[in-house]
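Worked problem 6 (solution included).
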Amino acid sequence: MYEMPDQAGRLAVITGANSGTGKEAARRLAGAGAHVVMAVRTIAKGEQARAEILARQPGASLEVRRVDLANLAAVAEFADGLLTDGRPVDLLVNNAGVMAPPTRMTTADGFELQFGSNFLGPFALTMRLLPLVLAASAPRVVTMSSGVASYGRIRFEDPQWQRRYRPNLAYAQSKLADLMLTLHLAGLARQRGWNLMSNGAHPGFTRTNLQTAGASLGRDRPKRTPYNSLHFLPSQPVGPGTEPLLYAATSPGAVNGGYYGPSRWFGLVGPVTPVRPPRRARDAATAARLWAQAEQLTGVSLPAAAST
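Solution. The predicted structure is:
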């Protein structure tokens, strides 16, 4: 098991912290001494998760705050609350996501749900919190991608899947976009001399409710998908599946622009290892175009304090 360095005195913000890898990351980081903001869409679920963590670790420092990544106004409200507090953010973990709803759904702002929740929402959150992140002494932004990013493609001609919606390909696009966000932000940090590490992780085939929750959206019963029917493949529980995220977030061995995932069975399970991002994720021109599109769609860009 990955041995995390002491996190005392650090502030970590984790999206989707009420279940799965987000909840496990919150538990482990708080157990190492960090103060963790559990950023969740449903406060009651967040409070339940907090209570469960405190039952195991009574001294954990945790608070629950609401953010809905499918609503840019809610993202702004959440970020404004932290900006008002003024405490530097040592670690921002963009973990929350939705996976392959069977029918095309949209966010509050009219974006395709996966592109909006998995990429545009985290993009806006990261840009809004960047002043607090850059105010920390050794900050990191960690964004959760997926192995399916390897077959994703950014459909600039129809990023919202208004024509011929394909659940799994839309998910792959959003996860490729997350990885491109990671690498582009890492490049900005290098170019501008920021003391910021932007890196990414993927959990391999980790058993969480992500595979079934997305397939249940808009239906009385979940539809079988390629993701929730691959039971013959090796998989792992949430604990090991969270380790790439925790390594990216805390390890002295992690690097700016790094990408981490499981090491065995073609990246499905196993101990953490550095992973080479897929070729499309390393296309700097496409990443810059995607970044500009995200700024235009969200109305959020690099804050003035971070633009030089």
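Discussion: Strands lie at 11-15, 35-40, 61-66, 91-94, 140-144, 197-201, 259-264, 269-274.
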